[in-house]
Design goal:
2 domains; 5 helices; HATPase_C_sf
């Protein structure tokens, strides 16, 4: 249905509904989770910027290529085996914050024909988490 899960944390529910929460680490000031992602695309990667002119566009394109090459090298060094990402997901779950009423943290992997679904009963992402995961 596109709406937040019933058990979604307030910051995610507010972002999904477009309500501002006003929290320093939530998407409130930008109005929605989509607005946070769009802001990161513009501010961090220059995607969607207009009126840069030919020279500005050329520089931006070179920066995108440079970052792409760096990420490919980093990924090749970090993920030397096809299954290493699973260990990373388990480590991430161990590092997560969990609501006080959660008796035991849970991590579930569901292998489907076309994808791998990973579920976790953590508190959820806030704006600062999204910005951190988008930073190299």
């Amino acid at each position: 249905d596109g709406g937040p899960r019933p058990d979604a944390p307030p910051s995610v529910a507010a972002a999904a509904s477009g309500q501002a929460s006003g929290g320093a680490t939530s998407p409130g000031p930008l109005g929605s989770a989509k607005a946070v992602v769009e802001a990161i695309r513009r501010q961090e990667f220059g995607i969607g910027l207009e009126d840069l002119g030919p020279a500005g566009n050329a520089v931006l394109e070179q920066q995108h290529k440079r970052v792409g090459r760096a990420l490919q090298r980093l990924a090749a060094e970090l993920y030397t085996s096809d299954s290493h990402f699973v260990l990373e997901l388990v480590q991430n779950a161990d590092d997560n914050a969990y609501p006080a009423d959660v008796a035991e943290p849970a991590l579930q992997f569901v292998l489907r024909d076309d994808c791998l679904v990973v579920r976790n009963n953590e508190c959820g992402f806030e704006e600062r988490n999204v910005r951190a995961i988008c930073d190299v």
